[in-house]
Amino acid sequence: MNHSSSGLARRGFILATGATALALTAAGCGPGTTPDAENAAAGPPRRGGRLRAAFAGGGVSETLDPHAASLFVDAARAKALFDKLADFGADLAPVPRLAERWEPNATLDTWRITLRKAAFHDGRPVTAEDVLYSYRRIADPKGTFRAKASLEPVDLAASRAVDASTVEFRLKRPYAEFPNVLAAFGAYIVPKDAASFDRPIGSGPFTFVSFKPGSSLLLKRNDAYWEGAPHLDELEFVVASEESARVSALLGGQVEYAHELTPASARTHQGKGRIEIIRLPGSAMQGFVMKTDRPPFDDKRVRQAFFLIADRRELVDGALSGAGEVGNDLFGKGYRYYAAGLPQRTQDLDRARALLKEAGAEGLKVTLDTAPAATGFIEAAGIFKEQAAKAGVTVEVKVGNKDTYWKDILDSGTFASYRSGAMPIESHVSQRLLTGSTTNATKWQHKDFDDLYQQAQSTRDEKQRAALHERMQRRLHDEGGFLIWGFADWIVATAPKVRGVSDQAPANTLDWARFDKTWLA
């Protein structure tokens, strides 16, 4: 996910490919139970019925072109109609979908993908030519599709269809974690020569019935789906852009699923029996960025002092209403390659003052840029301001324009609120922490760090690669520019009769909005 899209989350925009399997008991269930446990208790899935799901929408300009998806509702619709070659599991490791398997060459710069037997809704088989057409359409220089940046390492001109079920991707450089590309947000496979999506034909679990942009999409079960037919007869996406409207529709019986509730709404309705609250842990990283290329944060001792100023529990409780987990200044808690063995950082104001004194930064004054661009930003800024004052640091909170916020803070200022959805740790590094990264908000630019990343991508052995990821994370934990104080839950709600909704999938991973596995009890 690029950082600018995370800023749009509050208006229904997507939180990354992407966005953790943390040990949280889902709210709205009995003590010690989860929705998954309740599903088991409810007996075998029941076939039939229509589920109506309310999402924030994008108005009359909405499209069913899966490559043009940018909103949560776009991604949920695309998932129902289309498939990717892979998708992300709860730990953000890629899981095969239309790809049955993948295999690199010895130098990790050519990958062969074997497709499983699957068919489009019109009966045509999904072939290697469809895959190449889809990726070339996404990567078209004249286009602006989200997955375009993810496909940058692929030399699509040199890539080829070996046969109907085998694709050979040639890469521009070794890339051990190339399967992450196959799971990238928006990298859906469409039939070759597909250009119009007014009546879309995909290979997904549901088929098209009708669409009214900005209002509703009606789909029906695909009985020939390669992974097995959905339980539901029909699935209807209903647009309700205000959170209060989604909750009211759920309470009033107009819908059975409501996406994206606030922590306050979840608290209000949790345990009351009228609706079920389901928390998707680790869906959004919350923190601050420090620009490491300019004063005062070009001195690592100042950055280290700020790490120690933060009372993370107070920030999670105050800015997220407790709906989340504390962070440890590293992205991807619970994800594949996360350095869970590093000690949890806690507030130490005495050590923070000593570091500031060593750096000649006593009486420091900094401006903290923020905006109402994501849940908790303004609240977290106010809380951190009070925490910093205890260490003798004066923080001036400057509230900017939420519509231009992400563009504004990328290069300007020194200290700013930040948020990201789920994505693999490798993607976070490549997009934000290399010298050439286009969304490097901390201005972390170190050739030796770049080299370590490239060494990891040239390493075939996963244990050795994990060790290299840990070395990168140790460096970032010690002196990086991301002060990551928490990981927010993403909250959805359902009618009590809805079953099969995962409580372990971060937003925008495989099992998020997985309506082909949902049923009405």
Categorize the overall geometry.
Answer: globular
Mean pLDDT: 92
* Count of distinct strands: 21
- Residues in helix, %: 25-40%
In angstroms, what separates the terminal alpha carbons? 35 Å
Commentary on this structure:
Mean pLDDT is 92; it is low at 1-38. The strands form five sheets. Strands 1, 10, 11, 12, 13, 14, 15, 16, 17, 18 and 19 form an eleven-stranded mixed beta sheet that branches. This protein has a four-stranded antiparallel beta sheet with strand order 5-6-8-7, with helices on one face. It contains 15 helices and 21 strands. By secondary structure, the chain is an alpha+beta fold. The chain has helices at residues 3-6, 35-41, 72-81, 128-139, 179-182, 243-251, 263-269, 300-309, 312-319, 349-358, 377-389, 405-411, 425-432, 447-457, 462-479; strands at 50-55, 83-84, 86-88, 94-96, 99-104, 110-115, 154-163, 166-171, 188-189, 206-212, 216-221, 234-239, 257-258, 276-290, 324-326, 365-370, 394-399, 415-421, 482-494, 498-499, 519-520.
Topology record:
Layout: H1 3-6, H2 35-41, E1 50-55, H3 72-81, E2 83-84, E3 86-88, E4 94-96, E5 99-104, E6 110-115, H4 128-139, E7 154-163, E8 166-171, H5 179-182, E9 188-189, E10 206-212, E11 216-221, E12 234-239, H6 243-251, E13 257-258, H7 263-269, E14 276-290, H8 300-309, H9 312-319, E15 324-326, H10 349-358, E16 365-370, H11 377-389, E17 394-399, H12 405-411, E18 415-421, H13 425-432, H14 447-457, H15 462-479, E19 482-494, E20 498-499, E21 519-520
Helix pairs in contact: 8-10, 9-11, 14-15
